[in-house]
Amino acid sequence: MNQTVSDNNSIQISDGQEFLTFILGEEHYALDIMKVKEIRGYERVTKIANAPSFIKGVLNLRGDIVPIIDLRIKFDVGNATYTDFTIVIMLHIANRIVGIVVDGVSDVITLSLDDIKPAPEFGVAFDSRYLHGLAPLDDQMVILVNIEALISSDELGIFDNIDVDFREKKNELA
């Protein structure tokens, strides 16, 4: 069976799709594995002036300037401490690379369409517009994040903020 389901943001979820699960605070989340470029440890970033607190800064990833977003701060879950065990998931979103800081990475899971339940309008750390839904996994629920819609959203404004700040810094140095 190769059915797909489309949510409000017209992102397709396929039957038997793989998701990378990760932890923020006490909650388990998952995102489309096809958006993941790599998983790495947290490293020092260059701060961007006047950026929101959840935008930790940027780093140079093999020639690409990559904005780093701490989802723990954005969603107000867990402690935003940075240790050797802090994880950054590098994502390929809208032809750009962006990193998200999480508490930990768990596993890769495969879900059928029947496993995915509709997202509630309340009770989760962020707007349900950025959710594909919920899926039971063992004795817990996994929140399926529409990471592309979240990262590309005007609310987050990550690409616009970083592009403008980076151009301003470049012009100051010229």
What does this structure look like?
By secondary structure, this protein is mainly beta. 15% of the residues lie in helices and 43% in strands. A five-stranded mixed sheet has the order 10-3-4-12-11, with no helix packed on it. The chain has a five-stranded mixed sheet with strand order 5-8-9-7-6. It has a two-stranded antiparallel sheet with strand order 1-2. A hairpin with a 2-residue loop joins strand 3 and strand 4. The radius of gyration is 16 Å and the shape is globular.
Short description:
The chain has 174 residues and is mainly β.
Beta-strand content estimate: 35-45%
Helix content: 10-25%
User: For the report, how would you describe the main beta sheet?
Assistant: 5 strands, mixed
Number of E-type strands: 12
The radius of gyration over CA amounts to: 16 Å
Low-confidence stretches: 1-11
Task: List the helices and strands in order.
Answer: EEEEEEEHEEEEEHH
User: How confident is the prediction overall: mean pLDDT?
Assistant: 80
Helix count, DSSP H or I runs of 4 or more residues = 3
CA-based shape: globular
User: Which strand order do you get reading across the main beta sheet?
Assistant: 10-3-4-12-11
User: Which structural category do the helix and sheet elements fall into?
Assistant: mainly beta
Tell me the span between the first and last alpha carbons.
57 Å
